[in-house]
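Follow-up to my earlier ticket, as requested here are the two runs.
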Amino acid sequence: AMLVLFIFAIFAFSTCGSYSGMFKLSVECKNREESNLAIEVQFDYPFRLHQVYFDAPTCKGENEERLFLVGDYSSSAEFFVTIGVFSFLYSMAALSVYCFILEKYRENNKGAQIDFVVTAVFAFMWLVSSCAWAKGLSDVKTATDPERVITLISACDEPENRCREVYDPKVSGLNTSVAFGFINLILWVGNLWFVFKETGWMAAFAGTYVPSQEKQPAPDSFGQGGYGQQDPYAGSQGGYQPEYGQQGGYNEDGGYSQGYEQQPTSYSNQM
């Protein structure tokens, strides 16, 4: 599971952090010599668009005017990439633990319990960062829409001038980053269940978990352990306890009496 988290974390932060986009505009003035038919505007991560500028003709025989895009969306983008990078690092560390010190990880379930808490934190962070970046990306698309940028050019307010978009920015990579963000959210939430089963908490809730350091209490006495029950052979009759004082011995006639009641009393009587 950690290998999958490792891979998708890379996809998430790389598709966002490595993005670079561009769009083109055309401003055709009444005086063709003042026109600029290929205004190129480039922007990239972390999307501080208020620092992105371009030069556009005024169509009034003057120098070109410098214009800036609108908005700063670096906070949501950088937050998203940061969560992706830390998820990547933690997944790599967890894989190393599973491969090399698994016994230490399972000792007293402490490793699994810490892993569960960290996994829950990352799942929550993926939820927050993905939602924030989805909103930020929507604003980036709006701010870099060529039709919206054209409204910033003063020359385009004059009816005799013609302004149009030439090339739209490709934001498919950014759309993919948002998709990977929510996929990571699902994967980290799903991984919670697998880590939870290793913590021992499930058995504790069911009442069957006994810590390895504790011993089962011994019975207080044999009487409580089941050995103090009355012996069926040691009842009121005393069990098999022959009373040789009453049943054995020789009588006055010289015979062995009472020990064998149905036998002849003596050898002399048989004679």
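Run two:
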Amino acid sequence: MFHRWSNSHQQDQGSSELCTESKIKELKGAIGPLSGRSLMYCTDSCFKRYLEARNWNVDKSKKMLEETLRWRSTYKPEEIRWHEVAIEGETGKLYRANFHDRQGRNVLILRPGMQNTTSMENQLRHLVYLLENAMLNLPPGQEQMSWLIDFTGWSITNNVPLKLARETINILQNHYPERLAIAFLYNPPRVFEAFWKIVKYFLDNKTFQKVKFVYPKNKDSVELMKSYFDEENLPKELGGKSIMSYNHDEFSRLMVQDDLKCAAFWGSDGKLSNHIANGQSPAVCNETPPEAC
């Protein structure tokens, strides 16, 4: 009986893989010939993510992907360099952690209470830069990342403007589909609930299901978060055991090193070369934790 079930299971898996390959091929054909960075961007894994985001509807996936390619051609997220957004990161309000979750995914830590600027455009560029950076450093076989949002120090006075929240969600959902695996909102104050009631209507159902609230006194929510993260890696501020402090200089060295990697991957756009030519040579990070690279 077990043998028959196993064969049946393998057949179902094989059939599913063939269906996936067929849909990817169909979407490729619908998109048509690509060149340059659009061709580099549209890997089979990319096609699959857009199909998943639109429930395998090829026409809807095509429309979504075409909108992203237009956005990337004008916004040029792969050309943003650390020196352009470094001021946004001075307080550590958003950075890539030097640990992975239990599935080996990259982790972005967000601390909205550490907001230090007012330009919505620059804040969005900083976010996009770190999304691109996290993608560049994804471990083999991984397509997604996890978010940890720490509400320490957050209040209504430094709340994210509704317009910025909406645009952030728009970019994440429409141009980085299926990149978010899970997002934990750790110990948000009660006043945040009113803001959330508005924001959640901007989320599609798939994204909404990935957002989890965690409260230190709610055992189930804490256990859920710890099922995704090793307690030894989690910062104390997020209920873990790790003593972590954001060091802007060290993180900057890592990002400048990653800028070189990004330029080599996409093809240098000259911005980094000009920055170096102006006497601002990139520092080399000699002691970068392997999991952060």
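The only thing I checked on run two: DSSP finds twelve helices and five strands in the chain. Let me know what else you need.
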